[in-house]
């Protein structure tokens, strides 16, 4: 049985920059047996902070893209992001897969992965602004652009679960754990 209906679920964790997606993933991954957290390929400096990723140059990214290494790829905020095919393979063995995604890639992901569920992480705008400023990776103008983008709606027709991460991380983490390992009949 190899059809998509027999694959473990794939979850796209999306939300605006600074909402705490990386923190949530780090908090819940050890609590969800078998969960595979995707390592993204990103065109940023290895010492830029954030999630553990495969940091590559734009030229390396383009070579990987041309070689067909990516199941999904997108650009956002002057960076390129990719999800390698190999990172989705654990779902064929029954392991749920979660990736830190982008609203820009959701329609592409839904076409490729019929089992896709979207985990939409939100937070109040003042919380986002404070978190973005604290991490020190963006200029004031970049922060303003990220906050403006945070208000954009998700594409329609997707299975979406909302997670508010405005308060204590543990509250949002508990909601995320429940979504990643629902009780199935």
TrEMBL record:
<keyword id="KW-0808">Transferase</keyword>
<feature type="binding site">
    <location>
        <begin position="15"/>
        <end position="22"/>
    </location>
    <ligand>
        <name>ATP</name>
    </ligand>
</feature>
<dbReference type="InterPro" id="IPR012699">
    <property type="entry name" value="PhnN"/>
</dbReference>
<keyword id="KW-0418">Kinase</keyword>
<comment type="function">
    <text>Catalyzes the phosphorylation of ribose 1,5-bisphosphate to 5-phospho-D-ribosyl alpha-1-diphosphate (PRPP).</text>
</comment>
<protein>
    <recommendedName>
        <fullName>Ribose 1,5-bisphosphate phosphokinase PhnN</fullName>
        <ecNumber>2.7.4.23</ecNumber>
    </recommendedName>
</protein>
<dbReference type="GO" id="GO:0019634">
    <property type="term" value="P:organic phosphonate metabolic process"/>
</dbReference>
<dbReference type="GO" id="GO:0033863">
    <property type="term" value="F:ribose 1,5-bisphosphate phosphokinase activity"/>
</dbReference>
<feature type="domain" description="Guanylate kinase/L-type calcium channel beta subunit">
    <location>
        <begin position="7"/>
        <end position="184"/>
    </location>
</feature>
<comment type="pathway">
    <text>Metabolic intermediate biosynthesis; 5-phospho-alpha-D-ribose 1-diphosphate biosynthesis; 5-phospho-alpha-D-ribose 1-diphosphate from D-ribose 5-phosphate (route II): step 3/3.</text>
</comment>
<keyword id="KW-0547">Nucleotide-binding</keyword>
<dbReference type="GO" id="GO:0006015">
    <property type="term" value="P:5-phosphoribose 1-diphosphate biosynthetic process"/>
</dbReference>
<comment type="similarity">
    <text>Belongs to the ribose 1,5-bisphosphokinase family.</text>
</comment>
<keyword id="KW-0067">ATP-binding</keyword>
<dbReference type="InterPro" id="IPR008145">
    <property type="entry name" value="GK/Ca_channel_bsu"/>
</dbReference>
<dbReference type="InterPro" id="IPR027417">
    <property type="entry name" value="P-loop_NTPase"/>
</dbReference>
<dbReference type="GO" id="GO:0005829">
    <property type="term" value="C:cytosol"/>
</dbReference>
<dbReference type="GO" id="GO:0005524">
    <property type="term" value="F:ATP binding"/>
</dbReference>
